[in-house]
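In response to the reviewer comment on reproducibility (Comment 2.3), we provide here a single inverse folding case reported in full, input and output, so that an independent group could reproduce the run without further information from us. The structure tokens appear first.
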């Protein structure tokens, strides 16, 4: 019988600094939101340049590396704890990756540098992060056709949910309830505000308030991985996105039911949208706040602003001339071409451009609406909306793949 009191004997760490660099690089890229197809290609290219034969298998929660050195095969497993997207760190990993394969930095020094970058504290104060969410929420309300009341409510909801995330994120058990609590708080505030500001559209305010937490980008990344034949990673990421949708929707339904059970509320009304000039202002504000929320460098702000406007006007032009689905595909292709050109010209990760551009197109809010319809027992409409989510996701993926054909990416990141 095994003695459980004895310490577990751990396998020795690889002595070859090249292998250690590959392990740390793959773990860092996975932590900060790099898709499986890009992560595996980056590690393979790096291993080849370092004179190693390496096979990589990546999932959202782990990465396997099979390395051959002098005829001896060794397999390593690294656990990935996904964190928030951090474009600044991704850019620094890309610079370090280039320096190592060019021979300007040794693999041993590269390992130390990766650990240094990973353990650097967040330089954005908590109140700036929460304030950014509170400001980007009313911008989203403008895109959803909301008016002044919806903007005010969305800002209050976004700030409240952002503060909630900061509080529960410090405890692992509480953090697992974050999506449910976000939906619960958002729905409760959205409906209770009708007692203060009068009739308005609480659905628009709630969607705008939690838009930053809806996993539309995760859904799009999952479908991209499936399209590039990374079936395991894509399936796992797709189920993860679906679970977040379910928890958000269940929390929203609980908040809706709880408020209506104890409070008599007036009927909601259709929102009165603002002028076209507000859309331009909302797009500009969103682009600037993406720099903060995605931890990008301010030197990349102009590119992110350009990507948001290309996405915004490209989608409207495409929908007007080609229909909804093909219009989304056209806009995604424009964003992909812009991202590849940016990476080619400035030798920076294309994600810096693609991420803010795609987040304007991802079908996350449609997916949340579909879930609400299912909760309301409107099964037919819910199924139709869910199919629309999949079609829009496929359109985004096709647009990005076509962009890689039109302007082939010169970089693996």
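Designed residues, in position order:
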């Amino acid at each position: 019988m095994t003695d459980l009191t004895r310490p577990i004997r751990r396998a020795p760490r690889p002595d070859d600094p090249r292998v250690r660099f590959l392990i740390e690089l793959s773990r860092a890229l996975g932590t900060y939101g790099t898709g499986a197809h890009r992560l595996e290609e980056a590690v393979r290219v790096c291993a080849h340049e370092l004179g190693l034969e390496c096979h990589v298998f990546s999932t959202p929660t782990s990465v396997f590396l099979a390395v051959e050195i002098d005829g001896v095969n060794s397999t390593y497993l690294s656990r990935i704890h996904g964190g928030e997207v951090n474009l600044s760190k991704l850019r620094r990993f890309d610079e370090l990756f280039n320096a190592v394969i060019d021979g300007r930095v040794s693999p041993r020094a590269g390992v130390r540098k990766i650990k240094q970058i990973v353990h650097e504290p967040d330089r954005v104060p908590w109140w700036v992060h929460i304030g950014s969410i509170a400001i980007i929420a009313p911008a989203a309300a403008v895109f959803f056709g909301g008016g002044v009341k919806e903007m005010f409510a969305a800002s209050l909801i976004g700030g409240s949910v952002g503060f909630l995330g900061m509080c529960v994120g410090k405890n692992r058990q509480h953090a697992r309830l974050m999506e449910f609590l976000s939906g619960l708080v958002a729905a409760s505030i959205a409906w209770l505000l009708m007692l203060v500001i009068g009739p308005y559209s609480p659905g628009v305010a709630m969607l705008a308030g939690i838009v930053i937490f809806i996993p539309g980008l995760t859904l799009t990344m999952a479908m991209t991985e499936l399209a590039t034949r990374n079936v395991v990673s894509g399936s796992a990421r797709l189920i993860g996105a679906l679970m977040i949708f379910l928890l958000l929707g269940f929390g929203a339904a609980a908040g809706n039911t709880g408020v209506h059970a104890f409070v008599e509320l007036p009927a909601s009304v259709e929102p009165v949208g603002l002028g076209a000039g507000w859309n331009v202002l909302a797009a500009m504000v969103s682009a600037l706040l993406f720099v903060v929320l995605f931890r990008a460098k301010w030197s990349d702000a102009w590119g992110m602003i350009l990507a948001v406007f290309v996405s915004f006007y490209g989608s409207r032009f495409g929908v007007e001339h080609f229909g909804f689905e093909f219009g989304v595909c056209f806009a995604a292709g424009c964003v992909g071409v812009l991202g590849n050109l940016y990476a080619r010209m400035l030798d920076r990760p294309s994600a810096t451009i693609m991420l803010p551009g795609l987040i304007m197109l991802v079908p996350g809010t449609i997916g949340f609406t579909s879930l609400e319809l299912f909760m309301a027992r409107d099964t037919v409409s819910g199924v139709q909306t869910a199919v629309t989510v999949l079609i829009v996701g496929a359109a985004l993926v096709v647009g990005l793949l076509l962009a890689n054909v039109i302007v082939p990416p010169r970089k693996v990141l």
